[in-house]
Each structure stands twice: as structure tokens, then as C-alpha cells.
Amino acid sequence: IDIINLRSATKGVITIDPGYKNTGSCESAITFLEGDKGILRYRGYSIEELAEKATFLEVAYLLIFGELPTREQLTKFHNDIKGQSVVDEDVKKILDAFPKSAHPMGVLASLTSALTAFNPSSVNVNSEEDMYKAIVKIMGKFPVLAAWTLRKRNGLPLDYGDRSLGYVENILKMMFKQPNEDYTLNPILINALDKLLILHADHEQNCSTSTVRIVGSSHAGLFVSLAAGVSALWGPLHGGANQAVLEMLEAIKEDGGDTKKYMAKAKDKDDPFRLMGFGHRVYKNFDPRAKIIKKAADEVLANLGVEDPILDVAKGLEREALEDSYFVDRKLYPNVDFYSGIIYRAMGIPVEMFTVMFALGRLPGWIAQWREMRLNKEPIGRPRQIYTGATYRKFKSIDER
Ligand code: ACO
């Protein structure tokens, strides 16, 4: 009866859907997913074709503005981004204040949020022109902050790399260039990183993207909305899975490589262990990104001549899961993060930076979703609840309790 009263009080029926498994929060024209068939398309273009033929910056433009750019549009976009890539000197002081051991995702979320203080005009965006200015600013500064979290961790002086390079090339240079060294870029790594960033660039209303949209729906600025997205991405059930996968593979290897033992743990309902990198909320057939990444991982390792025993553990787990009724019945397949860490590791990127790499890829998707939400004039996001607490209790003074 109480619930019926509460429902009528809201002038409508409230549906309860924990985890929003079947609740749509918006209409969107950005990314199409068909989980059962393993289809993923950005603005209508298949992920397979984009990963093979486009660059990350082209895909970023496509996601944000809806069309693949002409050569002129792409050059202008890149130049505008490059023109906004310098961060305020005082941001360096904030970075300096973090302990060297701080997790890079925490540092990245804080610095992204702090950018608002140094760019107050990015908050009140009232026109597409204001939006464009905020977008190129963050596309320019975010990779710098991401790369600098690694430089700080490695005790390297901060460096802007070389702005005459491509967007992705310069990310690598900013991350790895040693002082007084003419860092030469390996085209195989540039190509692999470009692909990885494209594969991570958008995935409709996932946890971090929904977070960006809901924070942005209060008309908080773009940068703080993105900072909230970075925090949401950090968790091991979402973007943090790529770090968790590698740590799990390492642990299995250290423990003698007995994949069967870990398969049994994953199936044991009294054991909190889950096979990280397996399962997906939407893909219940296969994750199309995982297929592309698996191929890219093989190519990168072969080209670099890396023989990583971790790959054998990964392949063993995948083989066993595909034949195991627990995984087959629940439609649990390797997801995008099962193989991405293997590539990052081959590139010399430390494990704590893996989720930062994911954030670099997801940045244009978050921006596109935020822009769409603002242009569509969506109302503030505000879910309802079914209240299950006490109906009414008379207050007792502290002496009566
Ligand atoms: N290992 C073992 N069992 C699993 C796993 C797993 N990785 N994933 C799901 N299951 C089981 C659940 O225990 C549950 O079993 P039950 O029906 O017997 O209770 C069933 O499969 C369904 O799982 P849910 O958690 O209800 O599925 P949901 O859609 O809520 O979760 C998620 C999806 C979070 C990705 C989950 O599969 C998981 O935790 N995977 C491991 C973490 C991971 O790889 N995350 C990255 C996702 S991809 C990304 O964010 C980019």
C-alpha cells in the first residue's frame, strides 16, 4: 500500500531497473551496438573498417561532429587542437604535489577537473562556437596531462614532445622521450596505438559515458564532466579491467600457469574471483573489438619479436572458456580489455597506465555524447527510486534513545 501511495504521489509509475539493464536514458545518433550479433558502428561506419582505414583523429572528428572530415577540416581541427595544447604553468605545480606513487587515474581525474579553474570560459557554453573552443582545448590538453602522469611517475621532466607530429605519434613521444634523446617512433607501435584508441573511442551509454552525460546535464562544464567520466572509468568492472586483466594473467603465470585452477575459482559462487576481461553487459555473442585487438596483439608481438608467456596464459584461458558450459551458457566471451593490456605491455607502458590509455581513446566519445546532450537540450538527469525505509518516526531526544 505504501508503494502504491508513493507511486501515485509521483503522478506516474516508477520502474525499478538496477544497473539500468533495460532503461534507455537518451536518444543518440552516435554509436550503434547490436550485442547479440557483435555489431559496433560509429555514426554508421563499422568498427572493423574504421580500425583498418581511419586514423584516431578522423574518428574523433566523426564521433564529435557526425561526419568524416575532409582533408581541410581535419587539418584545421588538428591545428586548433595543437594551438590549445599548452597547459598553465600552475597546473604543473598541482601535478608536482601528488606523491610519485599516486595512481595515474586519480591524478588524471584531478588535473582534468583543475583545468576548469584555469579555463573558466569553458564552463558557460551557450553556442556551438563556445563548444568548439572547449572541445579543442580539452583534446589538446588531456593527452598532455595523461602523458605527464607517466613522466612524473618515471621521474622525467615534463615535455610537450613535438607538435609537428601526428596526434597519436605525439602522445607516444610525450610519454617516452628521455631528456637529450632524439626519440624515434616505431611505426608499428603508432599504428597499434591508433587502432586501440579507435576501438575504445565510444561505446554508447556505458558507465563512464552515462556519468559524463548526467554530470553535464546539470550544465556543469565539459572538463568537470569529463573528470567524472575518468573516475567512473577507473573501476575494475569498467575501464580498470585492462589493468586487472594483466595483473590476473601475471598472478596465474606466477602460480605455475594452471589456468584450470582459475577457471574453477571463477565458477565458484563462494569465491569473489571473476575472470577479468570476460563478459560484457551488451555483447552476449562476442565483442567485435576483442577480435580486432587479438589480431593486433599478435602482429605487434611478432613485429617486435616479443615472446610473452602471458599471451600463452591468455590463450589458454580463452580456449578453456570457449569449451566450458559455465561460460558458454552465460555468454561470457573475452571483451576488448582482455588483449589490450598485452599490447600496452609490449609498448613498454606500465600496468597502472593502462586505464589512462583507455581514457585517451574514450575522450572523443565522451565529448561527442556531452555535445549531443547539450545540443538536444536534454533535461537534467535525475533517476527516481522506490523508497523502502521507515514511513514515519517521531523524533526522540538523545536522552530517550
Ligand atoms: N567471470 C565469472 N563469472 C562471470 C563473469 C566473469 N568475468 N562475468 C559475469 N559472470 C557471471 C555472473 O557471476 C553471473 O552469474 P549467475 O547468473 O550465475 O549469477 C552471470 O555471469 C551474469 O553476470 P552479471 O554480473 O549479471 O553481468 P553484467 O552484465 O551485470 O556484468 C560485467 C558485466 C561487469 C562486464 C561482468 O561480466 C564482469 O564483471 N566482467 C569482468 C570485468 C570486466 O572484464 N569488465 C570490463 C567490461 S568491458 C569494458 O568496460 C570496456
UniProtKB/TrEMBL annotation:
Active site per UniProt: 280, 337
Any one GO BP annotation for this protein: tricarboxylic acid cycle
GO cellular component, one term: cytoplasm
Classification via InterPro entries: Citrate_synth-like_lrg_a-sub (IPR016142), Citrate_synth-like_sm_a-sub (IPR016143), Citrate_synthase (IPR002020), Citrate_synthase_AS (IPR019810), Citrate_synthase_bac-typ (IPR024176), Citrate_synthase_sf (IPR036969), Citrate_synthase_typ-I (IPR010953)
Any one GO MF annotation of this record: citrate synthase activity
Pfam families: Citrate_synt
Catalyzed reactions per annotation: oxaloacetate + acetyl-CoA + H2O = citrate + CoA + H(+)
Pathway annotation: Carbohydrate metabolism; tricarboxylic acid cycle; isocitrate from oxaloacetate: step 1/2
Listed PROSITE patterns: CITRATE_SYNTHASE
CDD domains to which the protein is assigned, alphabetical: EcCS_like
Keyword 4Fe-4S attributed: no
Keyword terms, alphabetized: Acyltransferase, Transferase, Tricarboxylic acid cycle
SUPFAM superfamilies referenced in this protein's UniProt entry, alphabetically: Citrate synthase
Family: Belongs to the citrate synthase family.
Protein name: Citrate synthase
Native source organism of the sequence: Paucihalobacter ruber
